[in-house]
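Predict structure. Input: DUF4295 domain-containing protein, 50 residues.
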Amino acid sequence: MAKKSVASLQTGSKRLTKAIKMVKSPKTGAYMFVESVMAPEFVSDFLNKK
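Output follows.
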């Protein structure tokens, strides 16, 4: 299960995207959010990997 929230972040000439993914903890079973700031072309790889 993945949730994606996109915000354009400008740092100089680079364009970055913030992706947020909801993952289930194998220990407790609770859901937690994993955030990452990356280039837009890597967002789908980040969301597809477990």
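The mean pLDDT is 82.
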